[in-house]
Amino acid sequence: MSVYPIAVFIDTNIFDESKYHLEGTSPLNILKKFSDNKKVSLYTSDIVLGEARRHIKENVLISYELLKKNNKEMRKHISPSLIKDTPFASFYEIPENNGFEEVALAKFNQYLEDLNFMIIDSSGVDVNQIIDDYFQFRPPFENNEKKKNEFPDAIMISKIKSYFSEIQPMWIISGDKGFRKAFENIDGFSCFDKLNEIFDLINEQDEKKTYDAIKTHLFDKNVVNNITSLLEEKISDGNFEIDGQDCDRKGICEGYDYDEAFIDAISGMELRLSSVNDVSDNNVTVTIECKADISVFCGYDDYSNSAWDSEEKEYLYIGRGQVSEDHSVEFDSTLTFEVSSIGNEFDFKLINIEFDLEMNQWTRTNREIIESDPRGDWEADMMDALEEYHKH
Question: What angle do CA 243, 244, 245 make, to 5 degrees?
């Protein structure tokens, strides 16, 4: 581990997991520091880059279509002319897609160039060995249902094994268990599922004092309680995504399209230090693994319990559906601390918390429909409106 640079191979899913975020506390941005400092030499393959570039183009287009869809929904409620010359009006303006995918690809390609990624191609691959692995169900072909999809991985694995060995070690970073399994118990290969893990190992060796001090700080009960309270507060403020749909393997979905959600309760929050990602003279960035049980109240327009006026071509009233959901979630949170030190004494001040929290069919543990009377609610609203009218 002490010999630099360390050879590191990055798989497609590592880029995908970061959503190609190349700034701030993103692992892909932190990786740039270790590359600039000659701590790592980075490798990927032509297959990985082909997949990554295809994913970038697909996801840019998906995001653009979502923007257009949301714009249509906004216009159903109010005309942008009414809020002209306000900052909000700019959200109604949808730019033409004049090569957004190409801009994104150019930034990704520049990132690869800046970090001096070395590209492993597919030439000279031992096809006979891959065919033998295929019929013997060796990794990555142990999953019979996905054998065809594993051939690109098998090509990469074969080429990596031909390049690297115990004499020239390689660190494999991949979220694919089958891909990592292909390197198990082979001298010269170490596998991780996240970039943060290799950051932690380097910082433990090179920034030992700060590394040990931040770990000690995060074992303090009062510090943990403070972080827990701040996380719960940020989650309750609406920093989460919730998906009421249940989708099968064929992509057929059913469920609820929530347009509002409120946290009812957060309990059982557990925190564990996962990695020390970045250490500088002024700041320390860490990742903590979080677990919690969260109860949420959700609402949606229930058109199955609405009344349609066929003459006026509009709804007399639209029923509101209410659902209570319980979720057991696991998510990572990135914490940034301002650090100051005098001798061997360190002081840490928490200055930023970032996390992505999504609740969906995989985290849901319970769902209950809250019964309501949409017509009764509509009539009550009408009575309130008439009463207010007569008062004036």
Answer: 95
